């Protein structure tokens, strides 16, 4: 008998048999090794125990034979090494016409005939299960500790990873870059079980799950947001079972429009999406001279009818018309604006504004207002240096209230508008909300105990105990299926 080592420590004992072959026994703590006669409350606990032992040892198990009583309760359960059995014998002769075209299937698992196993049976009182047979020896080496994160079980993507891939996908970051980013934020690649291929496969499977039901998923998500988020507007049109038009605007957009919506610009020339639909953003300029979005729509075509529907939705959401609209030179849009917005000025480009605005503004001296010919206050909402010189010359130290527009107030938008629910909407319901709370609480505790190693270790042990309590309190809890996991990641159930 001698010990086989990997880079860290002993992983198994190698035993030479009388026929010259070798058996291998994993080196694990005695408390983690299965003991014949041990009892477990349910069959899932048996599987969990043997799976943990296998993970510590460096091999993978698979479920085998299960016998049931007449009542349907499992009576026996066999757990085996996943490469148990012998490879199938395949005969192929290319000179024989019958087999020359048969393809030999190559599998990723090579059978070794290993007899390692664990067998459980129901106890006499039918209140639990007992381990009555356990074979510890294997006829193969075990996976080194450095590569155990690549085993079939451990390289599966966790739920936070799936959420991470989906969130980055919404910002046009692919699965490969998502894997690099996740590894860089989690102490390196050795801390991430799933490899790049798993990330790409997950993205592929998620896209296949969505399939041709993406329009239904979009409508369901938007309706959920309309139901759960305050002051959210969403309208859509379905023609011939296809989504042809939609419009949406949230509460922040409506606050922005209330303060900065005197001039609105929208451009219906974006057509870069998969379905060749026209994306129409409604934009304006805020108090920092930055673009703000008042709403957005998507149209299947640029007819007068479609544009009229979009503008009607805009008017319904905001309840009042803008003073000035700037668009591209689209006849259909011009007709729609004339039909829906009958109280505003429509300009096709900045040339019209620059050339015609000075002609329509006159100086009003009746109320003592000061207007400069540069029209700085009329165009941008703040006084120019020429008017300040007049104020200074007249000994005026306080700017009159009529020159202080509300759009320059620091707390223009109410505080509640910055809540995540208002900014990002309803995603995943109560589950996602609770997940975010749990992550933030744990992160806060880790930062609080970062300089006290003893208390940090105590906190980790308490978290593990809580995990055990939850598992014991929910013995029959089933894992989510792949479809259920996709629905959770998307935040909506596929219709």
UniProtKB/TrEMBL annotation:
Coiled coil (UniProt feature): 449-483
Keywords per UniProt: Coiled coil, Metal-binding, Zinc, Zinc-finger
InterPro entries xrefs: FAR1_DNA_bnd_dom, MULE_transposase_dom, Znf_SWIM
Name the record gives this protein: Protein FAR1-related sequence 5-like
Domain SWIM-type: 357-395
GO molecular function: zinc ion binding
């Amino acid at each position: 008998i001698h010990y086989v080592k990997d880079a860290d420590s002993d992983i198994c004992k190698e035993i030479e048999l009388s026929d010259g072959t070798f058996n291998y026994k994993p080196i694990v703590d005695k408390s983690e090794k299965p003991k014949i006669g041990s009892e477990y409350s349910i069959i899932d606990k048996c599987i969990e125990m043997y799976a943990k032992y296998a993970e510590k040892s460096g091999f993978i198990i698979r479920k085998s034979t299960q016998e049931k009583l007449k009542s349907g309760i499992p009576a026996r359960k066999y757990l085996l090494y996943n490469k148990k059995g012998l490879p199938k014998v395949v005969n192929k002769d290319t000179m024989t016409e019958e087999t020359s075209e048969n393809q030999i299937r190559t599998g990723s698992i090579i059978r070794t005939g290993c007899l390692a196993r664990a067998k459980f049976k129901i106890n006499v009182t039918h209140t639990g299960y007992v381990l009555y047979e356990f074979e510890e020896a294997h006829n193969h080496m075990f996976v080194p500790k450095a590569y155990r994160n690549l085993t079939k079980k451990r390289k599966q993507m966790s739920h936070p990873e799936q959420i991470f891939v989906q969130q980055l996908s919404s910002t046009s970051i692919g699965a490969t870059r998502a894997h690099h980013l996740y590894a860089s934020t989690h102490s390196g690649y050795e801390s991430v079980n799933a490899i790049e291929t798993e990330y790409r496969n997950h993205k592929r499977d998620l896209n296949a799950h969505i399939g041709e039901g993406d329009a239904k998923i979009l409508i369901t998500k938007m309706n959920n947001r309309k139901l759960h988020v305050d002051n959210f507007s969403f309208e859509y049109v379905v023609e011939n079972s296809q989504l042809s038009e939609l419009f949406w605007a949230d509460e922040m957009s409506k606050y922005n429009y209330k303060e900065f919506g005197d001039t609105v610009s929208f451009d219906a020339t974006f057509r870069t999406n998969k379905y060749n639909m026209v994306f129409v953003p409604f934009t304006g300029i805020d108090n920092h001279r930055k673009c703000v979005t008042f709403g957005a729509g998507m149209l299947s075509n640029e007819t007068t009818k479609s544009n009229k529907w979009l503008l009607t939705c805009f008017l319904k959401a905001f309840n009042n018309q803008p003073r000035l609209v700037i668009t591209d030179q689209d006849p259909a849009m011009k007709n729609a604006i004339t039909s829906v917005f009958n109280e505003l000025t429509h300009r096709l480009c900045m040339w019209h504004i620059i050339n015609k605005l000075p002609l329509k503004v006159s100086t009003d001296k009746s109320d003592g207002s000061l207007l400069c010919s540069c029209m700085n206050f009329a165009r941008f909402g703040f006084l120019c240096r020429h008017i300040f010189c007049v104020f200074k010359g007249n000994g005026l130290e306080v700017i009159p209230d009529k020159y202080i527009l509300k759009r320059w107030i620091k707390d223009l938008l109410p505080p509640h508008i910055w809540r995540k629910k208002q900014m990002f909407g309803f995603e995943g319901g109560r589950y996602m909300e609770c997940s975010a709370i749990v992550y933030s609480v744990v992160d806060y505790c880790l930062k609080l105990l970062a300089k006290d190693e003893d208390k940090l270790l105590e906190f980790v042990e308490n978290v593990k105990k809580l995990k055990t309590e939850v598992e014991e309190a929910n013995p029959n809890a089933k894992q989510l299926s792949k479809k259920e996991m996709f629905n959770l990641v998307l935040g909506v159930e596929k219709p």
